[in-house]
């Protein structure tokens, strides 16, 4: 007479099922656990990215995207300079995948600083598990300066600041334009400077190996010395790198906006 185990095995065979040894079953369970962990990690990353996208401040109020493939050097009169900028930006992204540091993109208006920054953001989202956030300096100034009587605006600014402190890759676009034109001696308000200082300090945190974990990318029409007339020197020291290898100068390019 067949025991219960034999009957169960025969039933599984009749149904086209697969009989596994104890070792095979254990391996299968481990694989299932790994798949579940991977799916959980992917879902968590997707959720975090949605939060940082929600808290981003875009000049137009809507998310803007760009890719390296869309950068066409032939649109510039100086094709060689445009080709070199593309290569430098791609190499910069490769370095940023391995380590975190501040980046400064400097040049006149309309030459592609924001476009190349968005291409870096796109590459981070496609090829890494890093989170990204885009903040227009002009939009941020409005949020910081005009939240006094609006409780909803104040709550949003608090969320924005928290995300700016925590996100892996933070872009502050058009830094300095919120204060004045190039060469202006006007200074940013104390409130705005304090906001930026809190962000800058938090983003210099290091891990157990004394390595930075967060990257801040600044784009500006103003030179570093011009920005120093607008903002506190300590803030500029924390936000705007002076290391040549981490600076992209958009020289020899023209405004191609239509």
From TrEMBL:
<dbReference type="InterPro" id="IPR002611">
    <property type="entry name" value="IstB_ATP-bd"/>
</dbReference>
<protein>
    <submittedName>
        <fullName>DNA replication protein</fullName>
    </submittedName>
</protein>
<dbReference type="Pfam" id="PF01695">
    <property type="entry name" value="IstB_IS21"/>
</dbReference>
<dbReference type="InterPro" id="IPR027417">
    <property type="entry name" value="P-loop_NTPase"/>
</dbReference>
<feature type="domain" description="IstB-like ATP-binding">
    <location>
        <begin position="98"/>
        <end position="236"/>
    </location>
</feature>
